[in-house]
Records
---
Amino acid sequence: MISSKIFSTFRNMQRRHTTLREKGRRQATRGPAYMFNEKGTSLTPEEERFLDSAEYGNIPVVRKMLEESKTLNFNCVDYMGQNALQLAVGNEHLEVTELLLKKENLARVGDALLLAISKGYVRIVEAILNHPAFAQGQRLTLSPLEQELRDDDFYAYDEDGTRFSHDITPIILAAHCQEYEIVHILLLKGARIERPHDYFCKCNECTEKQRKDSFSHSRSRMNAYKGLASAAYLSLSSEDPVLTALELSNELARLANIETEFKVTLPLTTLQTDCPEGSSRCVQ
């Protein structure tokens, strides 16, 4: 039993080192040009044309290159560390996004979903959620941080490749942005915001997170409570939004005296104002 735990720990450490090595490799390939307004030197003319076509929504060119080119790396990134999928989503090009999603081994699908949610692009969100990666629904419940040890590029693990906190799940982000329709879609897919454990919880998970990075642990709790207290999530996820809002308001009032990290920058008590607002909107 002990030997299997040691082996599992060693394997996880090995996978983490591989992930960090791949991150450095991606940054090295991109080169220092991503800090300036020029294309990285590693991009071929074909890749530059492909990224430009995705960014500006040139559907015929993107389709032709994806279907005919034998040398195209459709996961290549520009000087800002964004691939074609992120560029297409960021500029609301639904047709280009759908073409890219048909490719196997497409990278940064998770980042593209978060980007579409943050911009409120409902149709693009629906298109991305039809990707095979979301078939089982597990990808919707895990944050980028929780998926860090996977061997794929579902999320970008470098500071310039993604703009979202690594503890943010799609439904938490949708709740933060008050995107009612997107929250509804994600709830139908089985996504939920898990209520954080008690602040004084001594389970192995909480103990390890506190020991490793107490600030990140508190930040993830704050993000979860912000999602739980949002009007969009309250009104769509609870059978009795008014009662849920009152219970959450009382819980936040108690935590305001405990979660000291955010008392100055973003007091927990400010979230209490969201709860009554959410419940009143439900009643209306």
---
Amino acid sequence: MALVATLRMAERILAGDASQRALAKLSQVLPQRLRTVLDDAAAGSENADGRGAGVDPATLAVLLRAAGQDLVLGFRYRDQHEAVTRRRVEAVRCLYARGHWYVLAYDLDAADRRVFRLDRVREPAAGQPGSGDRRRPAEDLAAWLATDFGRHAPS
């Protein structure tokens, strides 16, 4: 049930039919008793939100790998004003918040932490190992982000 619920939520996060394909593959490998439970849950549910953030599963996979393995990551980034820049970062953590995937990273060229929306990332490429010293900036990342990277008191 948890897998079906998660994949239904992911339908609006991932571009294409990645969630549907994952459900079909799960159904093929499960024992008959569990396959019936999965198939019933899938048939009896849908994501009615209708919005899609359009994150390419391949992009998400590259960024998750870079964050998990402490790799330097290069990509093109389109900001909220439609300006496109090249970025070179050390990925710290991928986050899902407010209907979007983000990557928290240390921007090597700006020498500062940045948060990038994954649906604005193009052509990501993980490269050499990072410095190894780009840890989580705070235990509670939600609070840290809500306080403008820890620069302001919580509201």
---
Amino acid sequence: MTQMTTRPPSSGLSLTRLLDGFSAFIDLAAGCIADLAGRLARGAPVRIVEDKAGFFVLEQAEAAPPFRLDGAGPLPPEVSAALAGREAELALDPARFLFRPLELPRGAAAFLDGIVRSQIDRLTPWSAAGAAYGFTPPQEAPDDRLTLTVAATARARIAPLVDGLKAAGAGAIVVTTRMGDAGAPIRVLDHAAGAAPAASGVRRILLAVLGGAAAAAMTALVVSGIVGSSLDAELDDITQRIADQRRAMIAARDGQGGGLVAGLERRKREVPAAVLVLEALSQVLPDDTYVTELQMEGDKVEVAGISREAAALIRLLEQSRQFAEATFVAPTTRQPGEAGERFHIAARILLPMEAAR
């Protein structure tokens, strides 16, 4: 038994299909753009109608005489002037065409072009390539059916007429006919003079534009990558510097905080609080002594007040453990009517009050 292995489809085949699809898209877009540009440049179409005798009449110019398109002679000047660069609708006599009815399922409405093309050789004596053909709009019929009428003629029979209009300077030629005098026009042939070169030029322009856009996109991607890398590096550097500054600020704040706390603690130990000094004075001074003023500066204190025996205050302060170098900074005085002497004494505080308690 032979073992068969399957291989995945070749990437080259997929690439080929992709390129073919892209080329078809470019061709379609170029054709549409060229056709639109041609229609805008040509303006409103010029309509030329064939009568029963085989003569042609320019509908827009009533003064233009009937003419033939068999190449036997030049066209009237009015016709040549009207056709120059314009689109021409050549309405041919229905006698030139063969009309055949066609009945189809209603579901075939979306595929009428392909179906009619495949049926031309069955409905007419000509093949699809050798026939100029068209069909009427489909009409609904019973049992979910559609009916339409196909109009066809040999392409070779109308080629001289199209060539005559091309020679007269027509920019584009549309061949139509009617089924009966009141029927809607049936388009059987479209011919745009110079359409292929115009589409080719548009195709080259589209390819150039797409190529330029692709090159610009690649350049933008490269530049974006370079600039993005540079910006990322710069952002990392800035982030690192911010982190360093933040750590330095935190360290400085912590250092300053520690020094401040240490300073406060040292000041608390070295400089006594006024409340504590006043409490120590209240313990040292006798009950008949009243303090009216207390000033502190560093380890120095000055006390002013009234005492029954001011001279004894120096001895009491010197004997205490909280004060030393007590001395009068102003002479004691006695005011009339007062029970004691006014004093003003300065002393040095020996220890912080909380250490002495």
